[in-house]
Sequence to fold (904 residues):
Amino acid sequence: MSKTLNLVLHIWRQKNRDSRGGFVRYEISDVSEHSSFLEMLDQLNEQLIARGEEPVAFDHDCREGICGACGMVINGEPHGPQKLTTTCQLHMRKFKSGDELYLEPFRAQAFPVIRDLIVDRAPLDRIVQAGGFIGARTGSAPDANSILVPKENADRAMDAAACIGCGACVAACPNASAMLFTAAKAGHLNLLPQGQPERTARVLNMVSQMDSEGFGHCTNHFECMEACPKGIDVDFIAKLNRDYLRANVESREVNSSDNSAG
Amino acid sequence: MELKSQAPTGPIETRWERHRFNMKLVNPANRRRHTVIVVGTGLAGGALAATLGEQGYNVKAFCYQDSPRRAHSIAAQGGINAAKNYQNDGDSVYRLFYDTVKGGDFRARESNVYRLAEVSVNIIDQCVAQGVPFAREYSGLLDNRSFGGAQVSRTFYARGQTGQQLLLGAYQALSKQIGRGQVQMFGRHEMLELIVIDGRARGIVARNMETGEIRAHLADVVALCTGGYGNVFFLSTNAKGCNVTATWRAHRKGALFANPCYTQIHPTCIPVSGTSQSKLTLMSESLRNDGRVWVPKNPADVTKSPDQIPESDRDYYLERLYPSFGNLVPRDIASRRAKDMCDEGRGVGPEVNGQRRGVYLDFKDAIQRMGKKAVEEKYGNLFEMYERIAGEDPYKVPMRIYPAVHYTMGGLWVDYNLMSTIGGLFVGGEANFSDHGANRLGASALMQGLADGYFILPYTIANYLAQTPRNTADEGHPAVREALDAVRTRTEKFLSIRGKRSPDSFHRELGQLMWEKCGMARTKQGLEEALAKIPAIREEFWNNLNVLGGASELNVSLEKAGRVADFLELGELMCRDALVREESCGGHFREEHQTPEGEAQRDDENFSHVSAWEFTGTNSAPILHKEQLEFEYVKPTQRSYK
Fold:
């Protein structure tokens, strides 16, 4: 027989964007240690429905740690206590019976709460829309092997591209900065030969969008890396800073040469 | 109704080229006058919306997730096939075509499959140009691997996250178009009804899942790229939100549903650990290259710790039954044998609902042979994932695995243009039935999604638009009002029942029944039992469902209720389809139809056709239409893995 746990949960309940939220205390018993954290919440929700109370809303989808939909703050830590693990992959055997857990949504000015533990992360999409792409039209590509990419660069680009866009980095940062997210996306593309033509515009536009969304500045706390379920390295932030500096210089050169031509 | 495949004839190598030339084009200046709705933003939908946006069409794209980047294509691990022959090992478009037709157990349309193999090479080019970080060799060239028993190395991959990287490529292309204003993106929106005007798909009704607003969106053409229906089993490797609602709503409006009984079971998933299990996790099949599958010989040993069971008391049943292929037999065979062992009472692991459903996948010999370090290098990330979920260290204790539902080959019937039986309703990716026949090869799902989205639908949709008057109806049109009313009535119904059971409880009940009666192995008797029970579950659902909260708010129970209601109808159709298909083929195994060795026994004389079902009402029998399959190039043979 597997062990079971009894827990006290304090869960942030909030009806919608405009209403005030607050913690509500729940008790749950007989949670299997083999259940995932979200299965524990499923179990709570079934009990709430049976009692005529509305279930707790939380974002989730793939439940295998790759879609980036899930995420909540568990006792102060985005995605909870286990390193390199999304909330959906966290299992109850990491907790003890009798534990008291506080579950909150990701907190950031740029991520308004939609309901309970669900926040609006559309600002991250808009950062990508501003420049986080390579504009290769469908059908215009040369043969794949005509573009050589040194293995080291491809591997490093993949390290950055592994970002799942969950937003835990923002929630972990005391400034609610989105630098790690932005740096990962820009870094992935800037490391590849295909990404060079748009590199300057990409960096300037993404950073500008990030700033306009209300994310804070990066002041090198590196809490983001600590919270990141995919282990994205803060080295990419350093790289983004270098790319940003370079992009500023280059765009000024382009502007001044435009002026002289005029 | 006669099903016209519209597939070209003549030499197969030039069919798509000739068809493309014959299709009509839309002048670039006229494209902005057309609106296209794309539902779903996975590989097929994301690629399609991006491509149509680039071409200048107005696109409205919808997904139920908060962001298009989260579609379940993202979870695919292994890789994507393409007939590049970069390894110089004898691959070709024809070989990929041949392998796919054969792998599908001769139940796919040859013309479609050839086209898929043909455009596979363009997909890799496109993805590399977008910056997808595929694995590379030290030379800087792309790396390939052999996958799923293929004899050539044609699979491209990005670590164990190929689906993620391909989806992000499509998502980034889509994001560019959203940024330009060419694509209007509707995240957290769920399609709940198709709007059909004068026989043509002209829009959808969608619910804003945050505010509950129900609105009609009109267009000249609608494309559904909404994935498969594996979640009818409740437990599957699909994401929790995956559902059949978009395609089922279209089916109810007249689109035929083809081969619903073709489901793929993946043999190497982490077994169910308890009754609160919410989903199953797949582990790469590559584990079978070095792991050995076994169960105790004696049912009395199933509760013993595996290290207490001596070699002589272990049954390495795949090696015993299939001396030449051993642990590497195809997915369906490995799956069914695991089921047999557990049915015999020799399954291992925790008892769930009175049954032990698991077999050992043991790396002890591999660790002895290669050393722990080599095993770690090869499978480290998978071992880590297993330990995270199962809580056991597979370097010390053998893994436990069991098959799980993974992919559905059936879907809405489409012709060669990927258009359904409703004019202007196109279907791409896993949502259609077209290319995999009765069984899909590993690393071919990603290929098909992107083929449809980047390289096929943009042509065939343009061809349709060029020959079809634009939509002139507005929201006052009776068909639009009727669709809106239908959604509102249904929503009110869910909220007004106020019974005792949650949507999930019905979903679990249906799923368990489907898994037992319409899962890995099916019988006439079992299917008939399921067909008797499903209407009763449905009846209780509509009388005893409990959905709390209101319509005009974010309401997870309400969303689930709508999806479960549709699964309750689909499940019945799947059983019916499985019952009338009196043969075994690919993922469809009828126990009555097997060779003396226990393999699938096809009946080409009577069943070499696509079964396409027409909806006639929730409680009335659907009508079966058949599209005969012709095999001009790949002659049907019986496979053998002895």
About this structure: Residues 4-115 of chain A form a domain with the Ubiquitin-like (UB roll) fold (CATH 3.10.20.30).
